[in-house]
Design brief:
With 220 residues, the protein is mainly α. The protein contains ten helices and no strands. Helix 9 runs antiparallel to helix 10 (197-219). It starts with a helix and ends with a helix.
Length: 220
């Protein structure tokens, strides 16, 4: 994973999940999800067999999108214990990224979701997206996702939809939406004139994330 997206988003990654950006659409699922307590204990005490680690990373990746929607308090504690043992949110994503397949892909999608949430509050970015849609109202791959208008909630809604698709185990759909979104934001940044430092940063980040997600998807 490129270090730039992670360094730009320190403190803005997994913290997005407990906030429940869309509480009216809070998901509720059966409390059968969660990490095995004994395996979590061995991992946090550095006793997990290295041969078991790839499978454990897969299990963490499966739980991550569910973490603050469907897990019981006990299950959330186990996920938190893994996160803290690794050194925090960023280290958790870096650890997942070292494991090809679903762990790496999930980590990179989470980084993108954090980026979209961050740019939701950037008026300059929202205006660039609004101007882009004046020329191309429904960019490729987003026809059934974007509402007619563009507002400060637009990117957050896309982020939520990616998260929802991961929650529903529709990983390929989540990936396609993620790649279409990075294409749109990158194109909007290119069209924006004059291009400010913030818009240029967004263009670069979207280029990095598109490449990272594409590579992870190809190897999954």
């Amino acid at each position: 994973m490129h270090d730039k997206p992670l360094s730009q988003l320190a403190g803005h990654l997994l913290r997005r999940l407990p906030g429940a950006s869309h509480p009216a659409r809070r998901r509720v699922g059966p409390d059968r999800f969660g990490l095995d307590e004994e395996k979590v204990l061995r991992f946090t005490e550095d006793r997990l067999d290295p041969a078991e680690e790839p499978r454990f990373a897969q299990e963490v990746a499966e739980v991550l999108p569910l973490g603050w929607w469907s897990l019981s308090p006990r299950a959330k504690e186990r996920l938190h214990a893994v996160t803290e043992h690794l050194g925090g949110e960023r280290r958790l994503l870096e650890w997942l990224d070292r494991h090809p397949g679903l762990p790496r892909l999930t980590a990179r999608l989470v980084v993108l979701m954090g980026t979209l949430d961050r740019y939701s509050d950037d008026a300059e970015v929202v205006e660039a997206l609004r101007a882009s849609r004046a020329e191309d109202p429904f960019p490729a791959g987003l026809e059934n996702v974007l509402p007619p208008g563009t507002s400060e909630e637009t990117l957050g809604d896309i982020s939520y939809r990616i998260d929802e698709l991961l929650f529903e185990r529709h990983t390929q759909d989540a990936t396609r939406l993620a790649l279409a979104t990075t294409d749109w934001l990158r194109d909007a940044a290119r069209r924006s004139a004059p291009s400010s430092a913030g818009i240029s940063e967004m263009r670069d980040l979207m280029a990095h994330l598109h490449k990272d997600i594409s590579k992870a998807d190809a190897a999954a």
